[in-house]
Structures are given as structure tokens and as C-alpha cells.
Amino acid sequence: MSYRLILISMCFFVFIASSAAQDGTWSTISSMPEARTAVNNATAQVGGAVYVAGGLDGSGAVATSLLRYDPATDTWEELPDMPEPTWNAIAVEYDGKLYVFGGFRATTGTLLPSSRNRIYDPFADEWTDGATMPVPRGGAGVAVVGDLIHVVGGLGPTSPTNQHLEYDPVADRWFSGEPMPTARDGLAVTSLNGKLYAIGGNEPSGTFARPLTAVEVFEPVAGTWTSAASLPVARDGLEAVTYNGQLYVFGGSTSGSVATRSLRYDPDLDTWHEIEDMPDSRTYVGAAVVDSDIFVLGGGSSIVLSSASTVATARKFSVSLSVATEVIEQPGSFRIASIYPNPLRRDRASDLVLEMSVPGEVTLRVSDVSGRIVETKNLGMHAAGQHTIVLDILSRLSAGTYLVNVESGGRRINKLVAVL
What we know:
Strand content: over 45%
CATH architecture of the largest domain: 6 Propeller
CATH superfamily of the largest domain: Kelch-type beta propeller
Radius of gyration: 21 Å
Distance between the termini: 10 Å
Number of strands: 37
Structural class: mainly beta
Strand order of the largest sheet: 31-1-37-36-33-34
Number of helices: 0
CATH topology of the largest domain: Neuraminidase
Number of domains: 2
């Protein structure tokens, strides 16, 4: 089968002080086979399907099965039971497999956090075990940055932690990363533009857990954490995904109530924006991105984990993209003059002609729709003028939608492309 890379007619220019305004519409999809809650961070996309690992079912018991949703047919199926059922586990895709770490094994008393690393292979339809986590935990966050899976925060045997673990799935080894500044569990974690974002969560406050507004960002190259703009309202039990260079937050709970607002974060402006509310307020939801749709699944209608509040409802948020009307001018010209041939092809290189009035170092990045960078190329210093950049990375891309980013000196041009 051959593929072609076709430039979508809609393109946009994003300078460091401007942003593409994004919103979307909600619709209802087929309900889950059974009600599930506590699946925030335990939902992931693998091969165009959405997987939900464990959680608590409608009876309040720990769910045993792995669920898979096919967006193409709007159908659900139950897969082989997890080797060790848990709730508040964390799940992530890497190289076509689903990795499920930790979670809680009990629902009352001591929650019995797990350190197990369970790996599901959709092609073999079987589970295997990887190296266990150094410390058991549930309610953590997980994301892939580069070739490593990062696990941060969570609740260990006694209290929330700021521990940061890095897992190499190829070598099947764990390493200690730079600790997160704020210890917490119930947080959301995702990757965007090669960085790790830790959002919200809760920390102990007397006999209660206090929701947080903290957003902290890990830069793997520098090995350091920095703070980003705080959430507008503190929340925990939330879910976060990235699409098209933006970060989306759904569900969660504030102090005493279930959060109603859905949010979008713009990393260029370091600002949060309210988007279309979910049709119903929920916490502990799962979410995953497939193409331009965000699937928000299950959860609970109350801050109290109970069978009465657990739902099977599944929603789809279809992202729309429009060009921001307000653009802050930057000195000098920076634009793509042409791409040839167009449509682009996987079986041959294409030429991108870049015009820049100010000299600078140029970097080319390609991200998938989840925000994960799949290709990076440092093109070195370029003088002011017109330059031809050879796009020789196309043959390494598989079918899907991608964001091609050219950046120099804080100026950025993005083009949305599709591999067919």
C-alpha cells in the first residue's frame, strides 16, 4: 500500500505571542458496556482505537476487563482481563502496545497500590509483564516524551509523592528523573511540544485533600521543571490530552463539587481558555485523541466514588480550528513561500521554500495529533533571504494527521498535513 502526504488547505501562522483559537462540538457516542469511573489517566489510543484499563464498575468493584472502542464503527468490545485488576492505574501507548502501570487493588481501608507493569499487545491479543515500578502507586500521571515513558506523582503506600520515574520500554528498565516540585496525586499528565505537563491534582490538607491549580512543565533536554500558568480553578481527578499544539482539560472536581468547565491551554501564550462545556459534569473521566476527535469516557457525577454516581456515558468532542483574528506583529518576515511538489509524496523528498528577513537558527519538527513529536531536525543557522529546505523525513511517517512546525528566533509557522 502506498501513502501520500497531502497538505490540508487550511494552514496557519503562529508567532510566539499569538495563538490558533480552537473550540469544537460535543456529540454522544455508544455507551460503554458497563459503567466505569476512576479511569482518568487510564485511557489511551492505540492504533486508532481507544482503550480503557480497569477502574471501578457500576457496582463499586474493581473492574477486571480491558475495554476497546472503535471510532470507525462506534462499537465497544471487552478484551482479555487484566493480569492484576486495579483502579486509578495509568495507561499509555508506546510502539503499538498499551502499557498499564500501578493502580489500587482495594477500595476500602489500605488501598494497596500496585507496582506492576502490564503490557497489552493488540496484535497478539495477550498480556505480558514488564519490569515493575520501583515504588507502588496509584493516581499518578503518565506520558511519553521521546523514547521514554514518564510517570510522575501519585499516591504511594502512605502519602502523595513528587517522585518522577522514567521507563525505557525497549531496555525494560526504570530510572529516577528530576522530582516534580509539587507532591500530588489525582493529577493529569500529558506531553506537548517535547515537554511533560503535570496539571492540577490534590495534596493533603488536614484530614482532606486540597485540589491544586499548579501546572508544572518538565523539559527533558535540560532536565528541569518550570511553572506554567495555573489552572483558572483548582481541580483534581481531571483528564488532559493534547491535539494540534494545544492542551485540553476535561472533568475533575473542585472544592466540594464536580467541575463544569472544559479548558484549552495555549503553550505559546501560556494562557488558559474556556471551551464548550461537557453536556454533563463529570469527574474521574478518561480521554483519548483519535484523528481530530477527543473521546471523553465514563467517570462519575459526584466527587464521592460510588456505584450510584458511576456512568457509562461516552462523548465525542470534535475539534474545530480557526485562525485567530488578533495577531501581534513581530519584526521581520518569516513565511513559507512554497512547497513542491504539492501534494507531497512519501516516496520522494519535497522542497519547502522558506523566506526570512532576519537571520537565525531554524528547527523543523513534526508532531502527531496528540502533540507527541515524531521527527525533529535542526537545520542550523540561516542568513536572511530565501532558503530551500529538503523534506526528506516523509517516508518515515505512517498514515495519519501531523503538524509540521518550522521555527526560528521565536517565530513559528505551522502547517497541518495528512498522510493518506
